[in-house]
Amino acid sequence: MSTSWLYHGFGVRGYRYVKTEYVWGGMVITMERPWQACRCVACGSENVWRHGWVVRRFRTVPIGRREVFLKARIPRLACQACGAVRQAALGFADARRTYTKSFERYALELSRHMTIKAVAMHLGVSWDVIKDIQKRYLHRRFSRPKLKPLRQIAIDEISTGKGHQYVTIVMDLETGAVALPSVAGHAPEEGPQGRPLVALETAGTPRRLSP
Question: Cα(182)–Cα(178) distance, rounded to whole angstroms?
């Protein structure tokens, strides 16, 4: 295995391959990154000093049925410009996550064809890990919907508990995507200004209202 394999196989840039260990039926790939190439994660300054380091291990995409982990020493950097002392940015994994971005993409691809439980069992992780990956993807994908091409909306109101607690959902009637964040309270009587069509779901079939 070489340094180029870290990039082409696991999407890791800026790290040098050190060694590979075979433990517990899996692979642990050790890599390192010169701390001089790191930048302050707070202000982006190059004027940083090394302030210790921590060894971290990240789960990445498997090779066949063998689990693969990436192991690296992550330096703690003391910035001389802003005074912050933080771990260096990883690049190949998001903050406070124990898996790589390539593993996250692989889990999302499997989720298109398998249940959450099946994906978790196949990858050797908990149900909560796969659910968290899906929730983060949906938040990135749909938290800021584009309203400019919106022409038709559907408004539905569902109960979330006792005591008349309701949540209003506004969706794109043509695509089925959520158009606006859920709002607690009662469904609005009118759609956004300038929109030609509103559909309200009642006890029967949805009915269309002209503005």
Answer: 9
**Burial, 168: exposed, middle or buried (Cβ in 10 Å; 0-12, 13-18, 19+)?**
middle
Identify the burial level of 116 via C-beta atoms within 10 angstroms of its C-beta, where 0-12 means exposed, 13-18 middle and 19 or more buried: middle
Beta strand 26-32 pairing with 66-79: parallel
Instruction: Read off the pTM.
Output: 0.71
- Do strands 152-161 and 165-172 pair parallel, antiparallel, or not at all (unpaired)? antiparallel
pLDDT in tens, 40-99: 888 988 888 888 889 999 999 999 889 999 999 888 899 988 988 988 888 899 988 999
Chain segment 95-131, per-residue pLDDT in tens = 889 999 999 999 999 999 999 999 999 999 999 999 9
Helix/strand/coil for 147:
coil
What's the CA gap between 125 and 140, in Å, rounded?
Answer: 22
Contact (Cβ atoms closer than 8 angstroms) between residue 88 and residue 49? no
How many helical (H) and strand (E) elements, i.e. helices and strands, does the chain have? 4, 10
Q: How far lies 2's CA from each of 9, 30, 37, in Å? A: 10, 11, 20
200 DSSP β-pair partners: 155, 207
Using DSSP, state whether 87 is helix, strand or coil: strand
Q: How many other CB atoms sit within 10 Å of the CB of residue 9?
A: 15
